[in-house]
From TrEMBL, chain A:
Coiled coil: 82-116
Entry similarity comment: Belongs to the prefoldin subunit beta family.
Protein name: Prefoldin subunit 6
Pfam families listed in its UniProt record: Prefoldin_2
Keyword Thylakoid: no
The keyword Cytoplasm is annotated on this UniProt entry: no
UniProtKB/TrEMBL annotation, chain B:
Biased composition regions of type Polar residues, renumbered to the chain: 345-354
Keyword Ion transport tagged: no
Domain of life: Eukaryota
Family: Belongs to the RNA polymerase II subunit 5-mediating protein family.
Record lineage: Eukaryota, Viridiplantae, Streptophyta, Embryophyta, Bryophyta
Compositional bias (Basic residues): 366-376
Pfam family, one: Prefoldin
Nucleus among keywords: yes
Principal localisation: nucleus
Location of the protein in the cell: Nucleus
InterPro entries (UniProt xref): Prefoldin, Prefoldin_subunit_alpha, RNA_pol_II_subunit5-mediator
Transmembrane spans: none
Comp. bias (Basic and acidic residues): 282-308
Organism: Sphagnum jensenii
Protein name as it appears in the record: RNA polymerase II subunit 5-mediating protein
Length: 127, 376
């Protein structure tokens, strides 16, 4: 039965697409979690830097060496980093939403295909 | 009781949630709890580390220098000296280090400790929630497995109808001894509808005869019979106590007055009591209707007793008129003497005996009669 085969192929394609979307969503979640942790860490650093005296020595570990940094510079860097992380988190929220939308659509398509296949099978069984 | 009215729905819990689902949920919750416990443990570990580090930091500046073994590679140590004991580079996170004194470092560590504490508390609360969920899931699963059913019933005002229908079910216990059953039933009835009972008792006084007719079936001797058989046995029956004694003396007196044998006296008494019936009958009929609802609990209950005994059901017409229980034992017993004597032909003979009664106006009216007249 040709149409049956077609349907099966369609279903497989759709299922693969759905799986890919789900994988993306999973990845998104993971990255987001990572960013959330970084955000928390940066906030703590920011707080501590705020508490330091103006003349305190601040170092940044770059690779294997500690590089002396100006406190003001360090603060600015940390603030920028936090902003970046927040922007990233927002962006990921948006992509997650679109991904979920896609997942829903894909799921519906797969369900419809399954129903059609079932219908075709029962029809075949009757005839 | 053949109640075909459907008042609610009954669904087995196992139907709404399958055991497999419950198991899956339970497993997930258990996993979540496990993960949270692990996190709590790591947090506690951090907290302990922090505390230990704080102690070191507090003690380290005590001396200018320390002789220590410096780790050299993975397995080797070499002797060295620790100097600058009040200078620390504290990792703030994200690769940032700050040069701090011991005191300042301890401040940072304390702030971190507070943060850790809040996290630990949050985790503990979370674990508590998860555990509550786990017990809930487990309980539900157990109930479902044990075949607990969920009964949903709309609340409706309890009507007389449902009351009437339900009360016999509660009371439909076989009667072995009338007296004890009466006491028991009276207790139950009083609890269910005390007011109705009292009302019925007040109004039913004269209408118990038919009831007693049925009730006597189970009584080996009526009080009156027993009286005739053995005068000393008074008070043995629960219903024959105390204030009834003088009534019985009246009986005896009147028996003595009568010229003929005791059996004749019995017949006479019967007639005497029956004579009082006619004036009561109309009201009885009237009350019968009126009490259909009021005294329903008694009637139905009693009827049910009979049903249980006989294994047969009485139709609605056969229903006995309302009958009062313990509140009016005096009357019950007063009638019990007469009712047993009655035979099918009694009604016809009633009038003749009534005439006979009229022929003896000289005899003083007995206490018994007085009371009967008063109460009816």
């Amino acid at each position: 039965m040709a149409s049956m085969k077609e349907l099966q192929q369609q279903l497989e394609a759709k299922a693969a697409r759905l799986a890919a979307i789900q994988k993306d969503i999973g990845k998104n979640h993971q990255v987001r979690r990572q960013y959330t942790v970084q955000h928390g860490e940066n906030e703590m650093v920011q707080k501590e830097l705020e508490l330091l005296e103006e003349d305190a020595n601040v170092f940044k570990l770059i690779g294997p060496v500690l590089v002396k940094q100006d406190l003001a510079e360090a603060k600015a860097n940390v603030n920028k980093r936090i902003e970046y992380i927040l922007a990233e988190l927002r962006r990921m929220e948006g992509t997650l939403k679109t991904l979920e939308e896609q997942q829903r659509n894909s799921q519906e398509e797969v369900m419809k295909l399954q129903q059609r296949i079932q219908l075709a099978q029962t029809g075949k069984a009757k005839s | 009781m053949g109640d075909d009215r459907v008042e609610g729905t009954v669904t087995p819990l196992a139907e709404t949630l399958s055991e497999a689902d419950a198991a899956v949920v339970a497993r997930r919750v258990a996993e979540a709890i496990q993960a949270q416990r692990q996190q709590l443990q790591t947090l506690q570990g951090y907290h302990d580390d922090n505390r230990a580090l704080c102690n070191v930091l507090v003690q380290l500046p005590d001396l200018v220098s320390y002789d220590i073994m410096v780790p050299f590679g993975k397995a080797a140590f070499m002797p060295g000296r620790l100097i600058h004991t009040n200078e620390f580079l504290v990792l703030l996170g994200e690769g940032y280090y700050a040069e701090r004194s011991a005191k300042q470092a301890v401040e940072i560590l304390e702030r971190r400790s507070e943060f850790l504490d809040s996290k630990i508390n949050a985790t503990k609360v979370h674990i508590g929630d998860l555990e509550a969920e786990a017990t809930f899931v487990k309980n539900i699963a157990d109930e479902a497995a044990a075949g607990v059913v969920e009964i949903k019933e709309e609340y409706t005002e309890p009507t007389e109808f449902s009351f009437q229908r339900t009360s016999p079910v509660e009371d439909a216990t076989p009667v072995d001894g009338k007296v004890s059953a009466d006491a028991e039933d009276a207790k139950i009835m009083a609890r269910i509808a005390e007011l109705e009972l009292a009302e019925a008792a007040a109004e039913d006084d004269g209408t118990g005869s038919d009831d007693d007719n049925d009730a006597e079936v189970y009584r080996p001797f009526t009080p009156f019979q027993r009286l005739l058989l053995d005068e000393d046995e008074e008070g043995e029956d629960e219903e024959e106590e105390e204030d009834d004694d003088d009534e019985h003396e009246d009986f005896l007196q009147r028996l003595a007055q009568l010229p003929s044998s005791s059996s004749k006296g019995r017949a006479h008494f019967t007639s005497e009591l029956y004579q009082q019936q006619p004036n009561r009958v109309p009201s009885e009929e009237h009350e019968k209707g009126a009490h259909e609802i009021h005294a329903a609990p008694h009637r139905v209950r009693f009827e049910d007793e009979l049903n249980v005994e006989r294994g047969a059901s009485l139709s609605a017409q056969d229903r006995l008129p309302p009958r009062s229980h313990s509140p009016s034992t005096v009357h019950l017993q007063a009638f019990s003497g007469t009712v047993l004597e009655r035979n099918p032909g009694n009604l016809s003979s009633n009038q003749s005996v009534a005439q006979e009664e009229e022929n003896r106006p000289t005899r003083p009216v007995s206490k018994f009669k007085l009371r009967k007249g008063k109460d009816s």
